[in-house]
Design a protein that fits this description.
Blueprint (H helix, E strand, L loop, with lengths): L1 E9 L4 H12 L6 E15 L2 E12 L2 H8 L3 E3 L20 E3 L3 H12 L5 E3 L5 H14 L33 H11 L16 H17 L3 E3 L4 E5 L4 E4 L3 E4 L3 E3 L6 H9 L4 E3 L2 E10 H9 L15 E3 L5 E8 L3 E4 L9 E4 L8 E10 L1 H4 L6 H16 L4 E5 H6 L13 E2 L2 E3 L8 H14 L12 E6 L6 E3 L12 E3 L10 H18 L4
Parallel strand pairs: 5-6, 5-11, 6-7, 11-24, 16-20, 19-21
Antiparallel strand pairs: 1-3, 1-4, 2-3, 8-9, 9-10, 12-23, 13-18, 13-22, 14-15, 15-18, 16-17, 19-22
Length: about 525
Amino acid sequence: MLRITQLKLPVEHTQEQLEKKLLRAAHIKENELKTYTVRKRSLDARKKPELYYVYTIDFSTTNEERALRLSKGKLQKAAEKPYHAPAHGTEPLLGKPIVIGSGPAGLFCAYMLAVEGYCPLVIERGAPVRERRGDVEKFWETGVLDTTSNVQFGEGGAGTFSDGKLNTLVKDPVGRNRFVLETFVKFGAPEDILWEQKPHIGTDILINVVEAMRNEIIRLGGEFRFHSKVTDILPEENCVVVNDDEKIKTGAAVFAVGHSARDTFQMLYDRGISMEAKSFAVGVRVEHPQQMIDETAYGRTDRSGLPAAAYKLTEKLDNGRGVYTFCMCPGGYVVNASSEQGYLAVNGMSYHDRAGENANSAVIVTVTKEDYGSDHALAGVHFQRSLEKRAWEEGKGMIPVQRFEDFCAGRMSSGFGTVVPKMKGGYAFGNVRSIFPAELAASLEQGMRGMDKKIRGFAGADVLLSGVESRTSSPVRILRGEAFTGSVPWLYPCGEGAGYAGGITSAAMDGLKVAEAVIRRYTAV
């Protein structure tokens, strides 16, 4: 198999044009081309409105050596190493391995363990994904929150009710990233996530994928228990306690609990599990017309054949803080992502078609231990809660919304301008600025004004801000060593909640890493 890069064609090209370009660039004839696969596709918008797709393609031909010789260095051998699990260990495993949490980290950990014959038990505090969807939609419609089944908790994790973005910056020499994407496709995700530069699935499709993965884990001998919360651990007895009364012995308990499992963090802290506070970021959701973002990105009013445009912006401020956009949702919705009564958090979500009128993104500012004034391992959790409490009060239980002009002035908005909110969940005018300490609020304002120089209108008067975006990542890190175990030798911290990932793909990859650690140590059940 050979690989060719930098095949550039206008975005309006046909498949036939792509094949002809491949043949010319590879110096081969049509009858010499056996197969080809798109490996990567990215958009080149440097000369907008002239837009191009740039391809990397793997192909096979009847005479690879001749093609390599004629290409004069333009072709390379496609030698990608396929991912595989490690050899099984020899230590007997006490009971089944337990995976606590069924977000991407827990789900992929359980999947790999099941494939390798370890028959994992998955314990999830929330509901199965379809039941969970009903609970979430009921909350958005009525404001009645189920604290165990919501945007944060339940099968699929917090990423299920998001844009389903799958890009990651994690280095991947052993092929975990590709395996994650291929697994998603195997269970129903669109095939283009394998080659698009910025792959995404969308909430509507993710629900089906998550359910299909669960069914396969069960077919392979795994077990799922929903509405089951690990409320305690007994370190000396190798036990987890479920729903306050049931003890389950295990030699390996993977804690993939997600970034919002604050009660679990507290329980582990009380049990002496080593953890520390870590830096994270907080901020607001901003909404702009998607058409404005498209025109900036593409330099044209008609984006036929092109996806809803995305952006990624950063600003370094004079006070040393970084302000940046995060979890950008083209054609999406701002959603009420609360998980505790009396506290309010927001997130962004898109369906697969990204067909909504507004683009939304988090604009967030970094916070550190100095902001919450303590070295306590759970100080970041308390800081998040303080912001969420203010957000709940500002919106009287609904999402507080404010025009950017009014945010800068520190006054409540009295009406909408050119941007109308597209939200899942009730909203009300509130003073979003007052949610934050003064320096953080000023940093958000300054950061958005800087971003306006890159996207004209980004800091327009009518741009909508809502808050609070507080669940960008875990505020704690549960410490683990080279064997991936924590301060209790049978406890395996895993994924975003444990502080080792950020986003669907990196969390799934960390789930694989932890599964590998269990496999290397123990024999299969």
